[in-house]
């Protein structure tokens, strides 16, 4: 036989749970959402890439590591090479160009010493991956690419992913972006034979330029602008595609 004295409090409890669930603040309700997007089959590869290739080699700045854990690198390489996106090497992106090795992206980003409010200029948009990483740290990114097809492709993916603090220009990075200068940080991801003077001019005092310099043998250099002039430091031997003045070179 039904016992009304037991079933009534049961219904009452259910009603209370329903009411309190609808009253939960949004952030508490969100806590039950999965942490990783379900449609990202590479999230484990990406976390492993950051631990083994970046952190284990001495790059410890949390904002650099977080940005690289966050940006879906596989979406910046051609579809047929997606499974290779997290390996420890550069990858082809078409037009004879490459997306840099993850460690080099981490190293160059950490050398900029970003704190989170910077206006950053990048020369060599390429796949758009480095711009995406920078945009997760600085306040805005201005990126210049000399090859129009690459620039269009990168802009397409970055806009689809919602990175809305990146500004694009097709043109010659040797000229910099004078209308937006000065910049807190400048990164060059193709190798000029010498340090481009126009880029040094467009750097703020206290700002840093990170650039691979040389023809076949290249040095990754950090140029710091101070009140008293420019300081140059060589960091490592590297190998980048050449910075050209004409896209057909
Ligand atoms: N940062 C890129 C790496 C790009 S490789 C990424 O994350 O994928 C270097 C890029 O520099 C190439 O796309 C190349 O076309 C471009 N480049 C070469 N010379 C240039 C110049 N003078 N101005 C702007 N881009 C240039």
Q: How would you explain this protein's 3D organization?
A:
This protein has 249 residues and is an alpha/beta fold. It contains 8 helices and 9 strands. It has helices at residues 4-23, 26-30, 43-54, 62-70, 102-111, 129-135, 148-160, 197-201, and strands at residues 91-94, 97-99, 119-123, 140-145, 166-170, 183-188, 203-213, 218-226, 229-238. Helix 8 links the parallel strand 6 and strand 7. The structure holds S-adenosyl-L-homocysteine (SAH). S-adenosyl-L-homocysteine is lined by residues 97-100, 123-124, 126-127, 129-130, 144-147, 150, 172-174, 189-190, 241, 243-245.
Keywords:
249 residues; alpha/beta; Rossmann fold; 7-stranded mixed beta sheet; two-stranded antiparallel ribbon; 9 strands; 33% helix; 24% strand; disordered N terminus; binds S-adenosyl-L-homocysteine
Would you summarize the structure shown here?
With 249 residues, the protein is an alpha/beta fold. The protein contains eight helices and nine strands. The protein starts with a helix and ends in an 11-residue tail after the last strand.
Q: What's the alpha carbon Rg, rounded to whole Å?
A: 23 Å
- Oligomeric form: single chain
The helix content, as a percent range, equals: 25-40%
Q: Please state the second-level CATH architecture.
A: 3-Layer(aba) Sandwich
- Would you tell me which CATH topology applies? Rossmann fold
**Largest sheet, order of strands side by side?**
5-4-3-6-7-8-9
Bound molecules: S-adenosyl-L-homocysteine
Helix segment tally? 8
SSE layout and pairings?
Blueprint: H1 4-23, H2 26-30, H3 43-54, H4 62-70, E1 91-94, E2 97-99, H5 102-111, E3 119-123, H6 129-135, E4 140-145, H7 148-160, E5 166-170, E6 183-188, H8 197-201, E7 203-213, E8 218-226, E9 229-238
Parallel strand pairs: 3-4, 3-6, 4-5, 6-7
Antiparallel strand pairs: 1-2, 7-8, 8-9
The structure holds S-adenosyl-L-homocysteine.
S-adenosyl-L-homocysteine (SAH) is lined by residues 97-100, 123-124, 126-127, 129-130, 144-147, 150, 172-174, 189-190, 241, 243-245.
